[in-house]
Specification:
By secondary structure, the chain is α/β, with parallel strands linked by helices. 41% of the residues lie in helices and 22% in strands. Helix 2 packs parallel to helix 4. The relative contact order is 0.15. It binds guanosine-5'-monophosphate (G) and manganese (II) ion. The site of manganese (II) ion (MN) has 4 residues, from loops.
Length: 234
């Protein structure tokens, strides 16, 4: 499990991280998630993988608690195919209880495309996750069809703007407009904004200017191994 730090826009301090899986393959080297997640989603192994990442994250937070290191919220990606698994919410709650971690230190990221199937069941599942005290974010916002009506209907704490708005090179006026309006809308809906894929100072400065509260991207840090992340915050 690697960790990509998330930064507070104003203080530029690390305020959390996203847990990201990597596969150290014996012959093919380090594989990125898109090289194996689709396979795991198709064969069902994704559930075990998500739970494995959650366990590792809880283990880490529990060590911090024991060592008196200030705790921060770590996010775990939940696959859309996992969302409808039987007893999902109980299983998630059991893991954090096992490690004695206050659930608000865990955030679950649900990708935007998981919301296309919203038919009432997803709302119930999300409410049950929130009832346990976890945080919820909508990941990859803007990468596909972003249903604005779901933003107000579903219990989302954080909206993660996809890196599609931050293309290579100078920022485009149209992207600036969309980012500032999404951040503004989120703020009015009492949802926190985080922008992903921040690679340049121009992008970071713009996000500060429009009040996007959190940032994540290569400009600050790539996803890094746990030990490197712990060195950064320690
Ligand atoms: O689906 P999700 O947005 O959670 O995926 C995050 C992925 O984006 C990770 O695999 C991570 O390596 C990648 N990533 C993180 N920051 C950047 C960045 O600044 N630029 C690019 N191109 N990719 C990034
Ligand atoms: Mn994510």
């Amino acid at each position: 499990v690697y960790f990509q730090p998330k930064y507070d826009t104003v203080t530029e301090q690390i305020i959390g991280a996203e847990a990201l899986i990597r596969w150290k393959h014996s012959s093919r080297g380090m594989l990125p998630p898109d090289a194996f997640i689709p396979l795991f989603e198709a064969n069902g192994f994704i559930i075990e993988l998500d739970m494995y990442v959650l366990e590792k994250v809880c283990e880490l937070i529990a060590t911090w608690a024991k060592e008196g290191i200030p705790l921060m919220c770590i996010s775990v990606n939940l696959s859309r195919t996992h969302l409808y698994a039987k007893n999902l919410v109980e299983q998630l709650a059991d893991v954090v209880k096992k490690y004695g971690i206050p659930p608000h230190y865990i955030e679950f990221e649900l990708t935007e495309s998981a919301f296309y199937e919203e038919n009432g069941t997803l709302l119930q599942i999300m409410e049950a996750i929130k009832e346990q005290g976890f945080r919820l974010s909508m990941d990859d916002f803007g990468s596909g069809y972003s249903s604005l009506n779901l933003l107000s209907k579903l219990p989302i704490d954080i909206i993660k703007l996809d890196k599609v708005f931050l293309k290579e090179g100078e920022m485009q006026e149209s992207d600036r407009i969309i980012i500032s309006c999404v951040v503004d809308m989120a703020k009015k809906l009492k949802i926190t904004s985080l922008c992903e894929g921040v690679e340049t100072q121009e992008q970071s400065d713009y996000l500060k200017e429009v009040g996007c509260q959190m940032q994540q991207g290569f400009y600050f840090s790539r996803p890094i191994p746990q030990a490197v992340f712990e060195n950064l915050i320690g």
